[in-house]
Amino acid sequence: MTNKILIILSLVLLASCGPSAEEKRQVEIEQQRIEKEASEKLAQEKADRVAAVTCSIMSETRNMDGAVRVEKMNEAREKIGGEAFLRGDDAIKEAFQFGLCSELVLNENYDEALQPLKDAKRERERIAREKELEELRIAREKELEELRIAREKRAEERRIAAEKKAEERRIAAEKQRIESERALAAGAKNREIVKKLLAEGKEVSLHANGQISMIRPKKDSLLSGNVERFYKNGQMMFKAPYQNGQKEGISEYYDYDGNLTSKKCFKDGSEVSLEKCK
């Protein structure tokens, strides 16, 4: 009796430990899911390879006809079981421009990926335009400022030149006035001196302002004596002794203010070393 009970219990336990129908169904579903994921992964890998090869071909042959590129795109779409490509060659060129060729071939989130890139490009172009305009504005302002400075510099130079010229005219007028006054004063004084010199047998020349210009012995065949010349202000210009018509001895030279500037020694009309006149 006891053994029979044990056998019955063992059969019940074995029956209870086996998989139920629900468990079997769940196993089958999981197996199908795994197989589907594996199939989708293989299909995705194949599509990625097709897209990569197609983009490589079109990239290496950028100069190919647009219709050929569209044909290559449709061939790739057919291989991966995608929709026919209807956008045209401009879309392919745009995809290459933004580095989205594979996305265009696969037709996976292409527009969603493209739009931010186009927006970013437009923003960069806007910033570049604004920068260029700002640089042009700064350059123009700099040019205008340089022109303004140049005009002011020229105006200042003209003003300084005009003031300098006016000052020169004033100085010249003042000098002329002083010389005229001196001439008037010297006129009366020099008349007596000239009379005396003429009486001594000298020749006398006068400047226009009445000052004595030159005093020399009267011309004869052999000039002898001192020849003296004077500036318009009455100061001596030079004094040279002559003997028998030739310079002889030390000739002295003066500046406009009457200061002795140099001496020269002459023998028989020729200049020699100054020591020979000592």
Description:
The chain contains six helices and eight strands, in the order ααααααββββββββ. With 278 residues, it is an alpha+beta fold. The protein folds into three domains: 26-108, no CATH class; 111-200; 201-277, Outer Surface Protein A, domain 3 (Alpha-Beta Complex), CATH 3.90.930. Strands 1, 2, 3, 4, 5, 6, 7 and 8 form an eight-stranded antiparallel sheet that branches. A hairpin with a 2-residue loop joins β4 (236-243) and β5 (246-247). The chain is rod-shaped. The termini are far apart. 9% of the residues are buried. The model has no long low-confidence stretch (mean pLDDT 83).
Essential attributes:
278 residues; alpha+beta; Outer Surface Protein A, domain 3; 3 domains; 6 helices; rod-shaped
How many distinct folded domains?
3
Give the CA-CA distance, first to last residue: 178 Å
Helix content: 55-70%
How many helices? 6
- Tell me the number of strands: 8
The Rg value, from CA coordinates, equals 60 Å
- Proportion in β-strands: 15-25%
Instruction: Give the averaged pLDDT, no decimals.
Output: 83
What is the string of helix and strand elements? HHHHHHEEEEEEEE
